TrEMBL record:
PANTHER family to which the protein is assigned, alphabetical: RHODANESE-LIKE DOMAIN-CONTAINING PROTEIN 7-RELATED, THIOSULFATE SULFURTRANSFERASE/RHODANESE-LIKE DOMAIN-CONTAINING PROTEIN 2
Function comment: Catalyzes oxygen-dependent 5-hydroxyuridine (ho5U) modification at position 34 in tRNAs.
Sequence similarity: Belongs to the TrhO family.
Protein keywords: Oxidoreductase, tRNA processing
Descriptive protein name: tRNA uridine(34) hydroxylase
Biological process, per Gene Ontology: tRNA modification
Gene it is expressed from: trhO
Catalytic function, reaction form: uridine(34) in tRNA + AH2 + O2 = 5-hydroxyuridine(34) in tRNA + A + H2O
Length: 308
């Protein structure tokens, strides 16, 4: 379970729901105004297929938003997972209209029509410990680099759009096997399992609530998770109990870095890391250095740097 949060900390809500949301365009402005009026920041995506996003605010503000969303007939009962951040993990509030709330780019894939079998966090260890189970991490490579489940395959994708091609290329390895997939909060697996089932695979399963729910509910001493879980906000990563992790972002290339990677001689805060140092020019690094100087100056003045 989560540690008792500091009452001055911010509550973070990761939420999504696949549904028929035909009025998604007209919901954008009122939803943005609702959040901004309560000091909520983050990103919410609206599409004809539903809602997805992560936001943060005071406990009271997030409770009001959850109540507001649950009052929308199409969104009632949406999936939401909570954690906390010592500081506001977002810079602004954005409500965006999208073609898909999680972009796979394959026409006709509808999680409302067909989806994999949900596996509760308490049952996940048994499933992925079975040698007959193929365990697939559906996240992108930079996320997997921070942590993943034991025995999990890494498709080494840079975008979720690449996942269908990876499945096609490895189809032979998946035939007649149980396929267990997982992602951060559960939404990518809704699409991933729907896609894999559309190819004719029968035993397709996924972790209910994603990694975040697993890290919240499964004790560390029983865990098959190794490392930290990347999150798309300024916390960068979370660990068991959903406490903030030790990872930081390279502000030059946005790759998450472990403490060991930050010890590399190629790492310079805001300027470079081992993943981007050799692909950047001296002019690039000079530009990054000036930006970092401005960020540090704004921090000393107690302000947010607009370009951060």
């Amino acid at each position: 379970m989560n540690e008792t949060p500091d009452p001055k900390s911010f509550r973070v809500a990761a939420l999504y729901r696949f549904c028929r949301l035909d009025r998604f365009e007209e919901m954008r402005a009122p939803l943005a105004a609702f959040c901004c009026a309560r000091g909520i920041k983050g990103t919410l995506l609206l599409a004809r297929e539903g809602i997805n996003g992560t936001v943060a605010g005071t406990t009271e503000a997030i409770a009001e938003l959850v109540g507001h969303l649950n009052a929308q007939p199409e969104l009632t009962g949406f999936d939401v997972k909570y954690s906390h951040a010592a500081e506001m993990p977002f810079h602004r509030m954005k409500v965006r209209l999208k073609r898909e709330i999680v972009t796979m780019g394959v026409e006709g894939i509808d999680p409302l029509e067909s989806v994999g079998t949900y596996v509760e966090p308490a049952e996940w260890n048994t499933l992925i410990s079975d040698p007959e189970t193929v365990v697939i991490d559906t996240r992108n490579g930079y996320e997997v680099a921070l942590g993943t489940f034991r025995r999990a395959l890494d498709p080494q994708t840079d975008s979720f759009r690449e996942f269908p091609q990876w499945v096609d290329e490895h189809r032979g390895e998946l035939e007649n096997r149980k396929i267990a997939m997982f992602c951060t909060g559960g939404i990518r697996c809704e699409k991933a399992t729907a896609f894999v089932k559309s190819l004719g695979f029968d035993e397709v399963l996924h972790l209910k609530g994603g990694i975040l729910k697993y890290l919240e509910e499964v004790p560390a001493e029983q865990s098959l998770w190794e490392g930290e879980c990347f999150v798309f906000d300024e916390r960068v990563s979370v660990a068991h109990g959903l406490v903030e992790g030790e990872a930081e972002l390279c502000r030059a290339c946005r790759h998450p870095l472990t403490p060991a990677e930050r010890a590399s001689p190629k790492y310079s805060p805001g300027i470079s890391c081992e993943y981007c140092h050799d692909s950047r020019s001296e002019e690039d690094r000079a530009r990054y250095a000036e930006r970092q100087r401005q960020v540090e100056l704004a921090a000393r003045r107690g302000r947010d740097h607009i370009g951060s």
